[in-house]
Specification:
about 280 residues, alpha/beta, TIM Barrel, two-stranded antiparallel ribbon, about 40% helix
């Protein structure tokens, strides 16, 4: 069992939902980003999603767009993201790292092509990749001489994550789940990433339908920003809960001198406390 699978199994055995935190790698700068990840692990985060900053993050809301801009302005590149992951891995060898990325920067980076990038990502300590804009129909397209996207990930030993949206037709679930090898990310609301004043956990039937076609863990994210939201999401018996924009907003406040790393840690700890399965 890989490191991500081990975390899901351990949390399940202890009666807890896996808590996943999203941050943009290098936000607001390289050194501070490393400190933030360390604080998140101390606060009870089980898996870190590292967002690779991109200039056109179409699936992201304002918070994550601004985070990407801060990281890019700080000189963060795909190779710098892998350098950051390598540093995190050295100090947190048991912490799973999932790379959350658009295809453009990793297909046309200094790594030359996607296959090389995947190899370098694994060498740097990345445990899975969530390629946001790579649909399953294109997994078998060639990305390098003699290699498809699917083969490049498999050759590198880099499992991938599939997204399922609330408006995804159920007949498409088998295709999406069969293209994943790490876990399934269910998007709890339509639209882009972002916090919400309200959160509806009225998707339990969708989670059940996904479980009928896969044995992979299922996590839910988008719009989860308060302890009450986390508790509500966990009540659907998903395997993991993702919080992103609410944390990223506090990192923005940190960059503006209005928040501290300890403050971010305290907020995240309040979320992590709600992952006990009721």
């Amino acid at each position: 069992m890989d490191i991500i699978g081990s975390v899901f199994a351990a949390c399940r055995d202890s009666g807890r939902t896996v808590f996943i935190a999203y941050v943009t790698a290098g936000d607001p700068d390289f050194a501070t980003s490393v400190k933030i990840v360390e604080a998140l692990t101390e606060a009870g985060v089980d898996i870190i999603e590292l967002g690779l900053p991109f200039s056109d993050p179409l699936a992201d809301g304002e918070a994550n767009q601004l985070a990407a801009a801060r990281a890019l302005n700080a000189g963060i590149t795909p190779s710098k993201v892998l350098e950051l992951a390598c540093g995190i891995r050295k100090t947190n060898p048991g912490l799973p790292l999932v790379l959350f990325t658009y295809m453009n920067p990793v297909s046309y980076s200094s790594s030359a092509d996607f296959a090389n990038f995947c190899m370098q990502a694994v060498d740097s300590g990345i445990n899975a990749i969530l390629p946001l804009d790579l649909p399953p129909e294109e997994l078998d397209d060639k990305c390098s001489p003699g290699l498809s996207y699917r083969e490049a990930m498999e050759k590198a030993g880099l499992p991938n994550v599939s997204l399922i949206a609330p408006n995804t037709p159920r007949e498409r679930y088998p295709l999406l789940t069969s293209s994943a090898s790490s876990f399934i990310y269910y998007v709890s609301k339509e639209g882009v990433t972002g916090e919400g004043a309200t959160f509806s956990a009225g998707f339990a039937d969708r989670i059940s339908a996904i479980r009928e076609v896969t044995q992979l863990p299922i996590v839910v994210g988008f719009g989860i920003s308060t302890p009450e939201h986390v508790r509500s999401a966990c009540s659907t018996r998903v395997d993991g809960v993702v919080v992103g924009s609410a944390i990223v907003r506090r990192i923005q406040s940190l960059a503006e001198g209005k928040e501290s790393i300890e403050g971010i840690k305290s907020f995240v700890a309040s979320l992590a406390k709600e992952t006990r399965i009721p």
